[in-house]
Amino acid sequence: MSPVSDNNLEISRRRVLGTVGAAGAAGLVIGAAGGAGISAAVSGDGSETGKAGSGGSTALSTVGATEVMFHGKHQAGITTPLQSRGHLVAFDLAPGAGRKEAAALLRRWSATAKALMAGRTASGAADTGIALDAGPSSLTVTFGLGRTFFDRTGLAARRPGQLDPLPAFSSDALDPKRSEGDLWVQIGADDALVAFHALRALQKDAGEAARVRWQMNGFNRSAGATARPMTARNLMGQVDGTNNPKPADPDFDKRIFVPQGATGAQDWMAGGSYAVVRRIRMLLDDWERLSLDKQEKVIGRRKSDGAPLSGGTETTPLDLNKMGPDGKTVIPDNAHARISAPEQNGGAAMLRRPFSFHDGIAADGTPDAGLLFVCWQADPLRGFVPVQRKLDRGDALSPFLRHEASGLFAVPGGPAEGEYVGQRLLEA
CA 220 to CA 92: how far, in whole Å? Predict the structure, then answer.
């Protein structure tokens, strides 16, 4: 095989970006919010562009053509619709690396993320060619900063109180080697090769400045796998995410994002959010031994369509006071849906955006599978923590779960044109 130059690699991926039909393009903007816009990738004059070397034009499917903007009010990957493939990876700054090295790294990462999210190839080191023939495929790259990042960079005075360590919970069996980290990156895409390409490019960009602490791989249902857009299911088969806050809610920004008018030592977090990341092992053999009726009572919802046991459809509000013929509440007192409901937690809410994972079969023959839980909120002490504390005290689902890793990260607001992520902190 003859060698291919960096320039040819960039051209060949860029040229593959085609247009989609009007009906398909209309679907590309569904779910776009909070500055992370979604669009079809087209050439500069709006005409269809052909695949390199094809001698003609080749249109991508709507899955491949969908592009999420890198610049915006908030970072991409928070309100972006769930993608079918995801990678979560944490880095620690190398010994001796400090603020200068961290700034240079985030500058490199931001430039790479911007290029890859637009369907272009990575700059700098020769592109690996993994994602040739593919468009942007809804790729998002999201960057976060861990508690220890601020000590390593001499910025402890500007560390937000929201990064105080999470409390311990009874279901925790945390592996410190797979928890926390100086820096955190979330990658999502609707094509597995595009997602891996981004992971590899960012790992190479880290160079001598940072080392991988841990990495986890996840997935969701593929785009177009159902007749209509539907709430995702987890590996227990349950519809998962029904009561998520919606961007159209009047208090959505207040719950999920740090106010744009934030001042003081944490002004750099304006437009940002806090991500709680948990690797939650599902004890699937135990769960699958339960009858359908018992599973539904544990959750408080029907397995078939996610509707509450109190009746209606998936989006019908829970009727927590409805009684059954036996004189007991239809939704049991310890049902997961009841205990986690915002109205049961003083209005506490978080935007859940998880990936499922399956890392093979464990030595005891059980599946090493579950949920890479990622939730977003303006303040984890008012979002994740109070809800998890309540679940910890009596959730019927808890015996079927084990929390094996945990992390908490400050995710700065989206960069403006010409900025890199975290610049307002590192260059203040």
Answer: 28
Q: 281 is written with which tokens?
A: 């092992």
Q: Determine the average pLDDT of the residues in 217-233.
A: 91
Q: Report the amino acid identity of residue 427.
A: E
CA distance 279 to 408: 12
User: If you write DSSP's letter for every residue of 289-301 in order, what string do you get?
Assistant: TS-HHHHHHHHTB
Q: What is the token pair recorded at 365?
A: 């023959």
Catalytic site residue from 240, 285, 379, 392 = 240
State mean pLDDT over 216-244: 93
Contact 211, 167 (CB under 8 A): no
Q: What amino acid is encoded at 79 in this protein? A: T
For the segment 67-94, what is each residue's pLDDT rounded down to a tens digit? Answer: 999 999 999 999 999 999 999 999 999 9
- DSSP secondary structure code for residue 110 in this structure: H
Between the alpha carbon of residue 394 and those of residues 68, 332, 364, the distances in Å are: 40, 11, 28
Contact 67, 201 (CB under 8 A): no
- Tokens linked to 262: 């934030």
CB 218 within 8 A of CB 89: no
Is 395 a catalytic site residue?
A: no
Stated as kind and residue range, the H or E segment containing 106 is helix 99-117
Q: What is the mean pLDDT of residues 101-128?
A: 91
Overall pTM > 0.70: yes
